[in-house]
Design goal:
The protein is an alpha+beta fold. It has 20 helices and 23 strands. The chain is globular and about 90 Å long.
């Protein structure tokens, strides 16, 4: 962070040193005189790069924006590019190929998980592949080899066409093979460990030649702001100045994210975004987006920016080519500049059928959101337990051609889960000091003096606003590999305490997915045209017959299996299916010793409204209280749902069983995954000061 603050000051100084020049260029841009705002040689190079012939280029340079055909009926010269019209501001229409190419190159952009030596996430950045194995980001994101060794590059962290999260791929860095960094240009170039899976993401070629951009043009940024899913700032940043090494671009809506690639309208990388110019108060303090004084612990995403700065690609390339490297590193550098990157194709839906009229796809596709797709002959997407808008096509899960074939029944999602489980063996289980700092920052805006209704409302607002990543209900992918592990890296059922090997539960839940898919296919083959209600009924039946080894502390039936409640990790715990079925959707209850109940290794149960777990009382109580804070009014004091007279029981369990290392690990892991925390784990004493009845409908 100290390095980042130094970069901030240097960026600011460069920006203010160029006030006069920038103001002159901005005035010309506003007047539509874009060519006059740039050196003639650059304009000629730019037009040449856009394939305008030399006579057209000279005519346009001479006429500026007033260039028109000599007669109304005379069309522009044949080689006059459509892209040039956009640069001149005379045409805001973009060909569909612009979006197609942008989607293709976006695969090469990754979220960088910045981790401490103990394995705790301490921040996020953006990076992008610039060769088959080399990734570029900022120096202040990965300052040294040690930081890169501990950190990870996560590709495909984004929302798909169906509105659900895609399955991301995580790769480790190999700084011992290649690590090049420069704090002045604020870039780091580092190798990723060899992995055939990298091939499916392609890479972006860095071009040293000039003519890729002029002042007055718009740039596009693909990024992971604040570690959020991949986003695109499309033509929202306008270039206002070009310095010897840096580019300045301004926007009111879409600031850049550290380490993001900055593109021109031809999707060539023109700069590496790294910093900006912050807003300051009269005392010189950096301000946040909500007008407060910024502190380093808040993170750079909270700064109110008034200008962006990126390092010019031409200068980055020159610096990289000038470095002395060993033979192996030279080969990697040569490949970076001389090899041709692949075009990543977006999979299309194939509705073809054979002569019998039966669709070529006879097996259901298991989708990343837990849903399934069949071609029968219409393409129908149904999701287990919730409605999905009609007509949404799935994302193909086919492995890349260069990736080794998976064992039978083992798809990409299963491999991802097993890879994360393998990584768990090398990670620090829980870093109390880092977690305490994160908690202090998270609750910094909660006044110590408030209680009751005010404290409930403050916490509700905080939990909602920070719940940035909505995770689909896939416990084998999101719960078992890391979140629910105990210190010995094994899993214990929340109710019975029964011990499990994590891989066993992961593979079992994926087997359940396949079983559900096969039975649903049989159902659809028997039913000629089932109604949506009939399909939903069958899905519910299959889910009840083959449940996951996972427990919703607040049963799904209470909130209609809706998201984000269904996938919220804070109330999901590993639990063998027998205990899951024994509890069903019965509310928690504390039996007096003399009250008769059905006994089981999972706990006690009586009728359809009383269940007391044998173990895990403190953890499930805090999860239920969190649910009330996060989703007030979603479940109510009626039927067998959350009942107000059971609140004292939950609070008593909470006080008698304070959070242990396992629960603190869970809380920290969930914070890293979905962005919010459980206040009852971080601040157990608040339980006595919150008006929890506000959370019950």
């Amino acid at each position: 962070m100290k390095n980042f603050e130094n970069i901030l000051k240097q960026t600011e100084q460069r920006y203010f040193n160029r006030n006069r020049e920038r103001n002159e260029k901005t005035k010309l841009i506003r007047e539509g005189k874009i060519f006059e705002a740039n050196p003639p040689e650059l304009v000629e190079n730019r037009l040449s790069r856009l394939n305008a012939d030399s006579s057209t280029a000279r005519a346009i340079i001479g006429e500026g924006l007033k260039f028109t055909p000599t007669k109304p009926s005379v069309p522009p010269p044949r080689n006059f590019p459509i892209a040039l019209e956009r640069i001149l501001g005379t045409n805001d229409f973009m060909g569909i190929g612009f979006l197609e190419k942008g989607l293709s190159i976006s695969h090469a952009v990754a979220r960088v998980q910045i981790k401490s030596s103990q394995g705790a996430v301490v921040g996020y950045g953006t990076g992008f592949l610039v060769s088959p194995r080399l990734l570029m980001t900022n120096n202040h994101v990965l300052e040294a080899r040690e930081a890169a060794t501990a950190s990870l590059a996560e590709f495909n962290f984004q929302v798909g066409l169906d509105g659900q999260f895609k399955i991301s791929r995580v790769f480790q860095f190999a700084p011992e093979e290649f690590f090049l960094t420069d704090p002045t240009l604020d870039y780091t170039l580092v190798a990723l460990r060899p992995d055939p899976g990298l091939a499916e993401f392609g890479w972006l070629r860095l071009i040293q030649e000039s003519g890729k951009l002029m002042v007055g043009e718009w740039v596009n940024i693909i990024q992971h702001p604040n570690g959020e899913p991949k986003q695109l700032a499309l033509r929202e940043n306008r270039v206002v100045d070009e310095l010897e090494r840096f580019l300045h671009y301004q926007t009111d809506t879409a600031p850049g994210s550290s380490g993001s690639p900055v593109f021109n309208d031809q999707w060539e990388v023109v700069a590496l975004h790294h910093s900006g110019v912050p807003e300051r108060d009269p005392q010189g303090n950096v301000l946040t987006t909500d007008g407060r004084r910024w502190e380093p612990w808040m993170g750079e995403h909270r700064i109110a920016w008034k200008a962006n700065e990126g390092a010019l690609v031409s200068r980055l390339v020159a610096h990289i080519k000038n470095q002395r490297l060993n033979a192996a590193q030279q080969r990697m550098r040569t490949e970076m500049f001389e090899a041709a990157p692949p075009f990543i194709h977006v999979p299309e839906v194939d509705l073809s059928a054979d002569k019998s009229g039966i669709p070529l796809q006879s097996q259901p596709e298991l989708n990343r959101d837990g849903g399934m797709t069949w071609t029968i002959p219409l393409r129908i997407h149904v999701s287990l337990g919730r409605a999905v808008p009609a007509g949404v096509a799935p994302i193909s899960e086919q492995p890349s051609e260069t990736e080794p074939a998976a064992p039978p029944g083992e798809d990409a999602a299963l491999r991802e889960a097993l890879n994360e489980l393998a990584l768990a063996e090398t990670r620090a289980y829980y870093d109390a000091e880092t977690d305490a700092r994160a908690a202090d920052a998270y609750y910094a805006d909660i006044p110590a003096s408030i209680s009751g209704t005010s404290l409930f409302e403050k916490l509700n607002q905080l939990l909602r606003s920070t719940h940035r990543t909505r995770i689909a209900y896939k416990p084998a992918r999101h719960v078992y590999p890391w979140v629910d592990l105990h210190p010995d890296r094994r899993i214990r059922s929340i109710y019975s305490g029964q011990d499990f090997e994590p891989e066993t539960l992961i593979r079992e839940d994926f087997r359940i997915d396949q079983e559900r898919a096969a039975k649903m296919r049989e159902f659809l083959l028997k039913e000629s045209s089932p109604s949506p209600e009939r399909i939903a009924e069958e899905l519910d039946f299959l889910e009840s017959q083959a449940p996951y080894n996972c427990e919703h502390v607040v049963p799904q039936s209470w909130f209609g299996k809706r998201e984000p409640m269904r996938g919220d990790l804070h109330h999901l715990f590993a639990c063998e299916t027998r205990c899951n079925s024994f509890r069903s959707n019965i509310p928690y209850y504390d039996f007096p010793d003399f009250e008769e109940a059905v006994m089981d290794m999972c706990g006690k149960r009586l009728g359809d409204d009383k269940f007391e777990p044998l173990r895990g009382k403190g953890a499930v109580a805090r999860a239920a209280l969190y649910f009330m804070l996060r989703y007030p009014g979603e479940v109510g004091d009626e039927g067998r749902e959350m009942q107000a007279d059971r609140l004292p029981t939950l609070l008593a369990w909470h006080r008698a069983n304070l959070p242990d290392e396992y629960e603190k690990h869970r809380n920290m892991a969930i914070y890293e995954k979905q962005g919010n925390r459980n206040p009852l784990i971080d601040r157990p004493e608040w339980a006595d000061n919150v008006e929890f009845t506000l959370g019950i409908s």
